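To: structure subgroup
Subject: Chain for Friday's discussion

All,

I'm putting the inputs and outputs inline so they're searchable in the archive.
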Amino acid sequence: MKELRSHRWLYGANETGLLHQGALRAVGIDMDRYEGQPVIGIANTWSEFNNCNMSLRAIAEKVKCGVREAGGIPLEFPVISLGEELMKPTAMLYRNLLSLEVEENIRSYPMDGVVLLGNCDKTVPGLLMGACSANIPTIQLNAGPKRVGVFKGQRLGSGTDLWKYWDELRTGKISEEDWNEIGKALSCGFGACNTMGTASTMNGLMEALGIMPFGLSTLPVDDERRYAMSRDAGRRIVQMVFEDLKPSDIMTLDAFRNATRVCMALGGSTNAILHLTAIAGRLDIDLYPDEFDNIGRVIPCLADVQPTGTRLIDEFDRDGGVPALMKAMQNVLDLSVRNYAGKSLGELLDGYESPKGEVIRTFDSPVTPAPTLAILKGNLTPRGAVVKVSAADPRLMIHKGRAVVFESYADMLARIDDPNLDVDPDSVLVLKYAGPRGVPGMPEWGMIPIPKKLKEAGVTDMVRISDGRMSGTSFGTVVLHVAPEAAMGGTFAVIRSGDVIHLNIPERTINVELSEAEIADRLAQWKAPESAHLRGYPLLYQREVCQADEGCDFAFLRQSRKIKPGLVEPIVGRS
């Protein structure tokens, strides 16, 4: 039998092998039948704080069944659950912590392969980032989207409809009673958002990267096919251990290019730019900005799903889901890349028919033309910023307006609905100090509300700029992920109300009418904000986090070209 990583623990010298086998006996493993079988870790982000991930307990049991059937030893372990709704200031603050936890669990325990169980936004990339760094055989599974809630006969999209109805409540178009009923309708059971938010986007991209079963990501949360595929994954991970098939073998540059193309065709979340950049960075692959911009210029949105489109994920799934989308765009994909099952993308797509052009469109009839997402640069954001073009107002693609600046999220909340706010429909709303270091964690504060007096006058969109993020379920002409962020200094830190900003999405530029001398003079007077965090993980995060153009990862976790991905193995002996 092939010598496995776990054998160093379980066949250890002196008394340690017996000690380690005894630890597994204590949790119910029949070590009398142990003949060197692989040990498979199951990293579970289940938590009662995170309704998106609640069904992962059932998924874990199916994976265990499959591992046992293939002759492996399944051992489930908990990792931090990043619940987008309850975790403050943002789950993004803890994505890197989850990745560290996954990597260190793999390093320190006798695992030969790992199955990652996530669903909610940041759990999915956080799990995979850690597994990429460890670089042992890996499969990722999700729990699926939640059911669709209904309010007065209308099917509700998670997040997207919430933001729309919130504006209606602010302007008196619906009552408090209606608002409360909408809240109840949106609370429709376990599962991730049923729109093309970050969860649906990232889970779909896991299929495109080849690390998640083809067709799994959009299956309903309680679908029997989901359980069967999870069981199959348990069997397959054991085989992958003997094949030594690792994330670095699967997620190549060509695979990331395919995933980026799929992201554009999905009308995917702007957050995907951050997460793909961070995941690729763990494998020493560069995507930002060139890959995103080059691909974004030619791939239109093909998925008619909120917020870019009108449908919901259950309809997208019935039309074939991610595999059908990839079938519709197979002429622009690299079909030679292989997934965790060892099959090429071409082989996988052979089993699918082209979609009918309803929920999943064709290149001849897209939901929106290219670009879907775009990377902008200029004196306002020299290292880049992101805009979701497919969810923006076409009238604002080229725009000039004077800035209305909010120096913090609290400042914005206090003033946005003030009838005396000096703002008009052509103004550019600017939110500063919402970036990775500034809060910390880069919350989803970027979709600044339309000021109440303008909303009441019928204004539906304005140019908004922030060094923060926005929910994948959000919409509007919103420029995000400004790098460097305000807390790092640079032009964005010294923008003032009244400055004139030029946005030109076709030219991929965003600039402010300030001379270099004026910018330098303002920066000479600028003082970096003092952090309230003097200890703990938030302090570590602020000290180590990279900017948005590097995926907001920690510099010490990004892969170096000097070494290959993988673990520095622990010395196995007495603890």
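Points worth raising on Friday:
The mean pLDDT is 95.
The longest helix spans residues 224-243.

D.
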